[in-house]
Design brief:
Layout (H helix, E strand, L loop, with lengths): L1 H5 L6 H20 L19 H33 L1 H30 L16 H8 L19 H22 L6 H12 L3 H15 L14 H19 L4 H6 L1 H12 L3 H9 L13 E2 L4 E2 L6 H4 L3 H29 L5 H29 L6 H23 L5 H5 L16 H30 L4 H9 L3 H5 L15 H7 L10 H6 L14 H7 L3 H9 L14 H8 L5 H16 L14 H8 L8
Antiparallel strand pairs: 1-2
Helix pairs in contact: 2-3, 2-14, 2-15, 2-16, 3-4, 3-9, 3-14, 4-5, 4-6, 4-15, 7-8, 7-9, 8-9, 8-14, 11-14, 15-16, 16-18, 19-21, 21-23, 23-24, 23-25, 24-26, 25-26, 25-27
């Protein structure tokens, strides 16, 4: 069987499309993130209502997408080695991965950051007073030429290429060594691949294998990082890359995966819509020490190398809840990966021109789409009509049209096609007329209209349900788009999100140096309670201290905020500042030292104990060169 497989020269149209689909889903993902409910606060926030559909799409895609991509990367890397040799793979990946990555970082990344108003968050003051040249200088080359100390850890969506290059590097370096000592296959791993992929319930063994790596991730949702790669994240994706290699060496298992694909997908359904909220709650409720726990070996502010800073409390928290959630997410990852692999093998194993077109286009679509989707989503947030779901649909349709127009115009028939497709196409090739933009639009128009009508109706219902829940205030408090919105309100008392956060919590969470205006005084004036606790027992003062927002802290203290209210771990705002002294970088330690002094002046009790009996003083003694009594 294996000898025959090695001589197999068939093209895997199904798996090639799966690899492409993992990239194409990025286009959907990067629209959804701009139109989510108000409890999902991050750099894309700005949609006042938001809807659950976009949130569920985001969580669904993140469960399996990049793991599946790295698995396919391993599969096709081994295929190229097997058919064309190790040297060919190295040369091909230099051409198709290294060069697009460098071009993306040097050219597309600064364009994207300028369109995004400087990065970090969309609604901010980062470019105030800057000309166009100054804006580009501030975001280019990771901040090396902006005149400020430290590096900006930004790779936007090119992080996956960077991870892939690191994994390729390890593969290229280790393979000759392994082959040199006469090892062709690792027997135990090969048996595990056959057991896990070849049996209906084998996914449980695969989930058990990846469970430890996923558990050690600092966030179960694990959004990607920049060039400062956490070691555990890289190892996690490398496991799936290795499974891709194992699948290639045992590709007769594709028949078994295909026969079980509906079982894998059906068993996933009961968990898909239930896992996202508990995951968010667990990550949001983790102890503060998670903030200074990290798997990176480089500090961007000081540009120095360190050992990973691993505090066990930052990893091993939440007891059985984290164990169960991690195993469920690990299992869902495998059932979805195997389900879609099997489904593709059943339905797409034979060549289809339309599927080939999508597969050819996927790399370019992913490479170029982010500035387009982000900017259109940002503009879509500001449209005063239509539901958030309907507007997100319109943005997705328009983004897809523009991205594919650039593909047909600049890539498919040009020299760029040699990099993003392996080989450019000729306009004279059979069926090429059917892939012109006009032809594609005319064929998809009826489906787009039907989907648009459905999203219009569904979005209207969702917006009606959420319209009286104060989401506009919750978002504005964080985003600071337009002060008139808060100024026009009589009061904001009683407004809370899904996790018990008030508008004052949300305002204190935002970096105070990036706001368009300061919402804290307005919210206090409008009745947002300064000592309100969220579901995790945390006050707005707790949140402001955690984010080192010193001016917010002083305003809250002056308004009567109690500095001695503990969270569910017994940590008061003073505990937070003391724990954060253990972070990397002298600037951060200086900020939290000042905050401890401020809290002390307003009556913070440094002798209060947390859930393990540790006082603020003991944390200070552990992480600071200064003694607690001097603060």
């Amino acid at each position: 069987m294996n000898q025959q497989a090695q001589n197999d020269n068939q093209r895997y149209h199904d798996l090639d499309f799966i690899r492409a689909a993992a990239m194409l889903l990025g286009l959907v993902l990067h629209v959804c993130i701009f139109f989510m409910p108000p409890e999902k606060l991050f750099w894309g926030t700005g949609e006042y209502i938001g809807d659950e559909v976009n949130r569920q799409f985001l969580n669904f895609i993140h469960l399996f997408r990049m793991q599946l991509f790295f698995m396919m990367a391993g599969f096709f890397a081994q295929l190229v080695i097997d058919r064309k040799g190790y040297k060919h793979l190295v040369g091909d990946r230099c051409k198709r991965v290294v060069l697009p990555f460098l071009a993306g970082v040097i050219i597309l990344l600064p364009i994207h950051q300028v369109l995004m108003n400087g990065g970090g968050v969309y609604y901010n003051n980062a470019f105030d007073g800057m000309g166009l040249f100054e804006r580009f200088r501030s975001v280019s080359l990771f901040g090396l030429v902006d005149g400020n100390p430290g590096l900006k850890d930004r790779l936007i969506h090119f992080w996956f290429l960077f991870y892939l290059l690191l994994i390729y590097g390890a593969h290229f370096a280790l393979r000759p060594i392994v082959r040199g000592v006469g090892i062709n296959k690792v027997g135990v791993f090969d048996r595990l691949v056959r057991f896990g992929l070849g049996r209906r319930f084998g996914f449980l063994a695969l989930a058990a294998l990846t469970f430890p790596f996923q558990y050690l991730l600092l966030n179960l949702f694990f959004p990607p990082s920049g060039f400062n790669v956490p070691i555990i994240d890289l190892v996690f994706y490398s496991v799936f890359y290795c499974f891709g290699i194992g699948l290639y060496n045992n590709r007769d298992l594709l028949k078994a995966i295909a026969s079980n694909c509906w079982f894998f997908l059906l068993i996933s359904i009961p968990f898909l819509f239930l896992v996202s909220s508990p995951t968010d709650r667990l990550d949001l409720g983790a102890p503060v020490i998670k903030d200074i726990t990290n798997w990176t070996i480089f500090d961007t502010s000081s540009q120095e190398f360190f050992w990973p800073s691993l505090h066990l409390e930052g990893i091993f928290h939440s007891g059985l809840d984290k164990v169960v959630l991690t195993f469920v997410r690990a299992s869902l990852c495998w059932t979805l990966c195997l389900g879609f692999l099997g489904l593709a093998h059943r339905m797409l194993a034979k060549p289809k021109p339309s599927i080939r077109y999508l597969a050819d286009s996927a790399y370019w679509v992913y490479w170029v789409h982010l500035p387009i989707t982000f900017k259109l989503s940002f503009l879509g947030q500001q449209v005063p009509w239509g539901s958030s779901l309907f507007r997100s649909y319109l943005v997705l349709v328009l983004s897809t049209f523009l991205v594919y127009w650039t593909y047909n115009k600049f890539v498919r028939y040009t020299w760029l096609g040699d990099f993003f497709m392996g080989r450019r196409r000729k306009k004279s090739d059979p069926l090429e007329d059917s892939f012109k933009i006009k032809s594609l639009m005319s064929r998809s128009f009826p489906v787009l209209i039907l989907l648009g009508f459905m999203t219009f109706l569904l979005g209207a219902m969702l917006d009606y349900e959420r319209s009286d829940q104060g989401s506009t205030v919750l978002v504005e408090a964080y985003t600071t788009r337009d002060s008139r919105l808060l100024e026009s309100l009589k009061n904001v008392e009683g407004i809370r999100d899904h996790y018990g956060n008030t508008p004052l919590h949300n305002a204190a969470r935002r970096n105070e140096n990036t706001r368009i205006y300061d919402p804290i005084p307005l919210l206090i004036e409008k009745g947002s309670p300064v000592n309100a606790t969220n579901d995790f027992g945390r006050t707005p003062l707790f949140v402001a201290v955690r984010g080192a927002n010193r001016q917010d802290v002083l305003k809250l203290l002056e308004a009567g905020a109690d500095p001695n209210i503990p969270d569910s771990y017994g940590h008061t705002p003073a505990h937070v500042a003391a724990i954060k002294l253990g972070g990397r970088g002298s600037a951060g330690r200086e900020s939290y030292t000042k905050l401890l002094k401020d809290l002390s002046k307003y009556g913070a009790n440094f002798k209060l104990t947390d859930y393990r009996g540790r006082t603020v003083e003991s944390w200070i003694d552990q992480f600071s060169e200064e003694k607690a009594e001097t603060l």
